[in-house]
């Protein structure tokens, strides 16, 4: 059975952690679509392309090859950049890059192509609303900005990335605003997505809620 699970939500809502665990449980390929926008941002920063200059960014898209290896690491022109794309410089600029229509269409093509060939769980902002409008399961995770900033701050420290809680909170609020107000394909829950507020839930509790939704769907598809 071919299955697409869309797991969307704002920055720090816990999507990637949950998606990784669900991928293992249900034997699905996990694709972190945010990592793709981050990789384009990293390319621009490393090549002195101003992330706020839409024309300049779109002009270099043809030079950027993004792929995932079998362990789920993201490759930018063949190089593993999984760690580099989490650095502050990338986080501070990714919302500009991901607001450009041409960038989005380019990466969305890639995301749809991956979904054609494998059963996947893809996390992002627009997976259920735009990339895979016919996804079998659509979940949208939310959490307060403060909870999300705490999680991101802890994650940064654990990964050895320089982190300041107030700066992380400010960055999250700024990205929430830009991501949900961009003209083309803004970040929003699909009309038929199931919303889960993870603010006061443990990872195990979120997994259990998501599993209930997925199991119900699998039973329905089996009938
Ligand atoms: O989930 P994240 O913080 O790694 O995402 C990085 C940025 O990419 C985020 O600010 C918005 C953008 N993004 C997007 O516009 N659409 C997606 N499907 C995934 C991420």
Radius of gyration: 17 Å
Distance between the termini: 12 Å
Largest sheet: 5 strands, parallel
Average of pLDDT: 95
Going by helix content, strand content and strand pairing, the class is alpha/beta
Order of helices and strands: EHEHHEEEHHEHEHHEH
How many E strands? 8
Question: What compounds are bound to the protein?
Answer: 2'-deoxycytidine-5'-monophosphate
Helix content: 40-55%
Strand order of the largest sheet: 2-6-1-7-8
Query: What sort of overall outline do the alpha carbons produce when their principal axes are compared?
Result: globular
Poorly predicted runs are none
- Contiguous helical run count: 9
Strand content: 5-15%
Descriptive tags:
223 residues; alpha/beta; five-stranded parallel β-sheet; three-stranded antiparallel β-sheet; 8 strands; globular; binds 2'-deoxycytidine-5'-monophosphate
């Amino acid at each position: 059975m071919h299955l697409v699970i869309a797991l969307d939500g704002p920055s720090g809502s816990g999507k990637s952690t949950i998606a990784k665990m669900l991928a293992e449980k249900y034997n699905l390929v996990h694709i972190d679509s945010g990592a793709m926008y981050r990789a384009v941002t990293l390319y621009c920063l490393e090549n002195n392309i101003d992330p706020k200059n839409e024309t300049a960014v779109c002009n270099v898209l043809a030079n950027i090859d993004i792929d995932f290896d079998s362990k789920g690491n993201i490759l930018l022109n063949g190089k593993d950049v999984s760690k580099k794309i989490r650095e502050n410089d990338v986080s501070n600029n990714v919302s500009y890059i991901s607001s450009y229509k041409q960038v989005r269409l380019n990466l969305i093509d890639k995301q749809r192509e991956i979904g054609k060939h494998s059963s996947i769980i893809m996390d992002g902002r627009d997976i259920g609303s735009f990339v895979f409008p016919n996804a079998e399961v659509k979940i949208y995770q939310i959490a307060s900005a403060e909870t999300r900033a705490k999680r991101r701050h802890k994650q940064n420290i654990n990964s050895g990335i320089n982190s300041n809680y107030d700066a992380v909170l400010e960055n999250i609020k700024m990205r929430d605003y830009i991501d949900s107000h961009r003209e083309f394909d803004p970040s929003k829950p699909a009309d038929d997505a199931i919303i889960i507020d993870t603010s006061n839930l443990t990872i195990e509790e979120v997994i259990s809620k998501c599993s209930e939704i997925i199991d119900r769907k699998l039973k329905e598809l089996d009938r």
